[in-house]
Fold this protein.
Amino acid sequence: MSLLRPTSTESALNKSAEVLQSRSLTQMAIQRFLRNRNAIIALWIVGILLTMAVCAPFFEWYTGYGKAFQDRNFYSGQPPNWEARHYFGTDQNGRDIFVRTIFGMRISLMVAMVAAIVALTVGILYGAISGLAGGRTDAIMMRILDLLISYPLTLIAVIALAYFGRNIFIVFAIIGLVEWQIMARVIRGQVLSLRNSEFVEAARAMGVPPLAILRRHIIPNVLGLAVVYMTLIIPEVILVESFLGYLGLGVQEPNTSLGVLISEGAARIEQKPWFTYGPGFFLVTLLLALNFVGDGLRDAVDPKDR
Amino acid sequence: MPWTQRIGNVNKPILSIENLHITFSTPDGDVEAVKGLSLELFPGEILGIAGESGSGKSQTWMAPLGLLADNSRVSGKISFGGRDLLNLNVRDLNKVRGAELAMVFQDPMTSLNPYLKIGLQLLESIQIHQPELSKSEAKFRCLDMLKRVALTEPETRFNQFPHELSGGMRQRVMIAMALLNQPRVLIADEPTTALDVTIQAEILDLLRELQRDFGMAVVFITHDLAVIAKLCDRVAIMYAGEVQEVGVTSDILNRSKHPYTQSLLAAIPRIDGSRGEAA
Amino acid sequence: MSLLEVSSLSVNFNLPTPLFQKKRILHAVKSVSFAVESGETLAIVGESGSGKSTLVRAILRLVTASEGDVVFDGENLMNLNQGEMRVRRKRLGMIFQDPIASLSPRRTVFQIIEEPLLVHFPQMTADEREAKVGQFMDLMRLPSSVRNRYPHEFSGGQAQRIGIARALICEPDLLIADEPVSALDVSIQAEVLDLLSEIKESQNLTMLFISHDLSVVYQVADRVLVLQHGEIKETGTVANIFGTPKDPYTQRLLAAIPTL
């Protein structure tokens, strides 16, 4: 911002006020993001995939094949056939893989979003409290976190699913409750450094009460980072869900997810490779695009880290 | 070798900058930090570069070492020992910088690697440029140099980490490191700004003494005219990317007619009984 | 009566040590006593690590003092609870060393200067606050066109004027300035110092001025207190300290100042 730092004097101040339009940090971050071509392309891809997932019933109608529907004219386990509108072929039960992939992606994205929101809320609260309280409270809260992190996710998932039964909401909750731990750490670190920053000290010296300090000076400065980590958590959750699906612990029929589809296909990849092609392509595209968006956001929010 | 010999012909500049332009491209457009600057550095002199932040004084002297940020464009000519430093490739430049042309920075903590012992970092910089030296000889020279910069207990310091030294000691280490290869030109960018006054006075004395002993030319960049008055033979006053005035220190500080120099001088708080005059 | 009386104030810090090791304690301020008279400027001078910043932060209770009393206008601040202390902060303004870092990065100039009013004068209407902020921006020669700008858009000198406006808006009795010009260029230093002394006259302020720069201190202070390793080495009027320094440390400090 060297342009905006003229040499002292009021005239220079006035001039800079006229020439350049004022921009907040958030506006600057958005501008930086918009200049990042990769991130913008990725954002478009995510948008298109999201629209497809939301409009999944449209594809059911368009192709004429339901997610549980069996095509009796076209036998099961057939390769892609454009004329029959089986774009990705059919599975062993004769169901259309394209339609199932779209529905699978819908579930994957839903899991991811719910988990990300759970992670965001719990993580911010836990992290902010820990960071603000400091001292002994902070130490104890962080050791609890260490304990939780050292517990393997799969084990928790298997136990919980065995206990509560295979329920999609349980999957949401477990993944979210695991992912919040990383969020909490990141937020706590940021809050800790903000707490010792000079402007927070200035607010304390002015007599601003603690809650107002949190609201006016701390939360606005963590939100950007939290959003960034949320976009990076989403692809991770999708991956975790796919992994659970692969272990046979994912969502239940007739619902499906990208992970479940891939695991089903993987069993027969030598005879019927197209079982995995479609879902695999969608999963990879989605993950890549989300990661690009997340990286773009991170660079935009904190350009010093590049 | 006596320093008078090492210095060579005093009337021929050892380093000369001609029509230097430095432009930074930023998202908000191009910013010209240095605008057609020309300046000569003579052997054996201490040249002070004075200016406020944003005057381009540091950028000008990062250019000969190839240390400018990636978004910069440089044009002009910097001749040093028959070469144009701006046209050298990285390999040739590496032979020059750190050996014939050395630099000391403002913050000694960030220019030292916090994970390596002082001694290792010194040895590294000597071995890069003088690989023919044996290890014991290199170590001997490092310790000798630490003594020259008046660092107490050089053997102990040799095996310590940067954070175990105070700011003044770290700056002495940095100066020692810069001098290890006996450079002909030392560029010091605000080397005392981060230090306390008493330490600053010691470092300035040390620099003056070493400059004589090694017969090198020193470029001393600072915003503090009082420091320049104490140390420098000549001074160049910079403002907005241009040299406003250059000349013998006492002339500039006592008889300058240049309005910017005068405003700089007027701004310095004085302790001479005439309180409030500066205000 | 003195406006501020500090008596045998000590601040100790527990240095971070690994678990199960003997605690190490840093004595940052060692039983310091002094008084600030109404209307004067007292400068606290010391090099880095002398404890000068810790001392003023202890007075303002931004760090916890381990011992001692701070009597402000007849009332011992050390005996107050957090809520009571917050109310007193209306009368204690503070200016910080790093002008940009001490301004909240996502708030506009107007929001920053207005904040103390929101805290201490909750009954004020938006119009009244508007008027008051405008008045202090004028006083600090900040054009009204900058009111919606953000701290990162200013140079150090401009940002420091915003910081001073914020410190003054509740019309405090005591202004504590912690190295207010150390981060600024000399010419801007002079500008800010002039502004400070002007305002000190017109608002009848008492000032506690912390600096490592003796030449700046010479310009603004009435009395000087020299601090080294958390202890007072010498106190006296500016004429005394600069004319006939008694303590060897003061003498060394004075001798080290580069002069033209």
In short: The mean pLDDT of chain B is 86.
